[in-house]
């Protein structure tokens, strides 16, 4: 790797833009086809396929396809990569818009295409920035620059316009040897390790002899260290295991909010719960009840609380809540039994739970008038719900996609609880991808996690992110198993995403310095 660019054609300086000959144009379009195909293959690295090595190979293909390009061409290829990545990976938004949002097929296709096209701007920006800031080809570009900017773009996507951190590269590594890094650096640290692995793989491809061996050795050290870290017990058990039952009512989304369905829904959840009063904790999913709290507080819920107290069982129930004094609606969780309390969802889903620019969009198309789409966000710093004698970190639906928000309840919380309504997405990739995200939260925090969903996949997840039990989809069922409350804090709980982002900035600074030194 000590050779100059003139001696090593693999790292030649980017030439000035020239008019393409026929052969050059053919080569350009073959590169475009390569990145689009690579992007289409990328989601196979995630659940339910879990081909995690693709999360190393696919970014390496993008890095290689952006060599010796103008900024405009690199941006274009990054956008094509994003079209494949998000077009295949989050196409399930079409199901929510068309099947349950009642938009026509052309409109649903258009909205889905616009969403995918917008998300594709993030990998386009990645490729454009790398080419703009680091035009020279070198080993540092692949080992430092591409991985660092990849992670910083992911982090920005998880924040911008309330955030959409779906398909972050790190989630694909929940089953890989790299997962041992998650309790230290979180999912973005896993993304960094995966992107760095892609860079190491690409440099090893370009090199030969001892330099190739050294690069592959670096890859081995990275993965071997992660394996060793996976054996570290970051948290410790506290108290005895709890028997927990998760109620999966499987009320179809299409009829769930219809008034004639309400009585049947109440009866089904009561009946399924009554068979499991021996459990310490019973969890109902998000919006299990389709009446507001004040409508069922004195009758149905009071009777349920009395039964729970008689059997020394605690319940967590998802339901909408209306504050008559403020006129605000909340998507909430209610604890019943030994202690009553409320959790109000803080991170709402745009267009699903509230409509941005409501005065302009509400009523424009039927999709913007979905049931329960006028919620308010719950306040920050809410007291933790108590369940079975332990404080729990509660999240509703895709709130658990934001690790930095989950750790705000730690290390006080001894258990993680997620209540979700996945019925919006039918038989698509979304429930599987969401379950993978939940597993990452358990692994990052060193806490067992229970996940109750309306129609699957409900799950019990241990503190290592491993699935202990799951339910089939589209069945009314109850999942009962044992969970272990835990105390202590992983490094990620203590530090959050700061160290990973700081490491990325250091990598960029080193890469920039190396490029300038090379230029001089």
UniProtKB/TrEMBL annotation:
Family to which the UniProt record says this protein belongs: Belongs to the CN hydrolase family. Apolipoprotein N-acyltransferase subfamily.
Cellular location(s): Cell membrane
HAMAP family recorded: Lnt
Recorded metabolic or biological pathway in which this protein acts: Protein modification; lipoprotein biosynthesis (N-acyl transfer)
Start and end residues of each CN hydrolase domain: 247-485
Source organism (scientific name): Nitrosococcus wardiae
Upper taxonomic lineage: Bacteria, Pseudomonadati, Pseudomonadota, Gammaproteobacteria, Chromatiales
Cellular component GO terms, alphabetical: plasma membrane
Alphabetical keyword list: Acyltransferase, Cell membrane, Lipoprotein, Membrane, Transferase, Transmembrane, Transmembrane helix
Record's protein name: Apolipoprotein N-acyltransferase
Transmembrane segments: 49-66, 78-97, 109-135, 142-160, 180-206, 213-234
């Amino acid at each position: 790797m000590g050779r100059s660019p003139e001696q090593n054609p693999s790292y030649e300086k980017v030439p000035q833009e020239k008019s393409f000959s026929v052969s050059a144009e053919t080569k350009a379009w073959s590169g475009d086809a390569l990145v689009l195909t690579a992007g289409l293959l990328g989601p196979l690295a995630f659940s339910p396929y879990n081909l995690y090595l693709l999360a190393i190979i696919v970014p390496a293909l993008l890095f290689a396809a952006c060599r010796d390009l103008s900024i405009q061409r690199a941006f274009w290829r990054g956008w094509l990569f994003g079209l494949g990545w998000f077009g295949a990976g989050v196409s399930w938004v079409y199901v929510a818009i068309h099947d349950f949002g009642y938009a026509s097929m052309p409109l649903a296709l258009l909205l889905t295409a616009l969403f995918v096209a917008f998300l594709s701007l993030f990998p386009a920006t990645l490729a454009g920035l790398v080419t703009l800031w680091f035009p020279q080809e070198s080993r540092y570009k692949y080992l430092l620059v591409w991985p660092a900017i990849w992670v910083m773009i992911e982090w920005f996507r998880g924040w911008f316009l309330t955030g959409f951190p779906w398909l972050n590269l790190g989630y694909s590594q929940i089953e890989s040897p790299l997962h041992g890094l998650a309790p230290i650096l979180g999912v973005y640290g896993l993304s960094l390790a995966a992107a760095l692995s892609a860079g190491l793989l690409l440099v090893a491809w370009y090199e030969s002899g001892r330099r190739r061996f050294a690069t592959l050795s670096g890859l081995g050290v990275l993965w071997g260290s992660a394996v060793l870290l996976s054996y570290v017990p970051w948290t410790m058990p506290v108290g005895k295991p709890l028997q927990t039952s998760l109620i999966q009512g499987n009320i179809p989304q299409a009829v769930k909010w219809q008034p004639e369905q309400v009585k049947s829904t109440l009866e089904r959840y009561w009946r399924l719960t009554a068979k499991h009063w021996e459990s310490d904790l019973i969890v109902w999913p998000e919006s299990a009840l389709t009446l507001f709290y004040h409508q069922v507080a004195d009758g149905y819920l009071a009777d349920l609380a009395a039964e729970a107290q008689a059997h020394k069982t605690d319940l967590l129930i998802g339901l909408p809540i209306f504050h008559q004094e403020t006129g605000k609606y909340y998507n909430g969780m209610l604890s019943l039994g030994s202690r009553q309390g409320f959790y109000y969802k803080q991170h709402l889903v745009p267009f699903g739970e509230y409509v941005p620019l409501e005065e302009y969009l509400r009523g424009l198309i039927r999709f913007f008038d979905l049931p329960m789409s006028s919620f308010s966000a719950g306040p920050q710093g809410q007291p933790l719900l108590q369940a079975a004698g332990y404080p729990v970190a509660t999240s509703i639906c895709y709130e658990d996609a934001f690790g930095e928000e989950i750790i705000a309840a730690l290390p006080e919380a001894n258990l993680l609880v997620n209540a979700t309504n996945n019925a919006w997405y039918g038989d698509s990739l979304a429930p599987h991808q969401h379950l993978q995200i939940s597993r990452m939260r358990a692994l990052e925090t060193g806490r067992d996690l229970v996940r109750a969903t309306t129609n699957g996949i409900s799950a019990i997840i241990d503190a290592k992110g491993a699935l202990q039990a799951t339910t089939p989809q589209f069945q009314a069922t109850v999942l009962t198993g044992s969970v272990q409350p835990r105390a202590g804090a992983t490094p990620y709980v203590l530090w959050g995403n700061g160290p990973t982002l700081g490491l990325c900035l250091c990598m960029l600074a080193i890469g920039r310095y190396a490029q300038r030194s090379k230029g001089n």
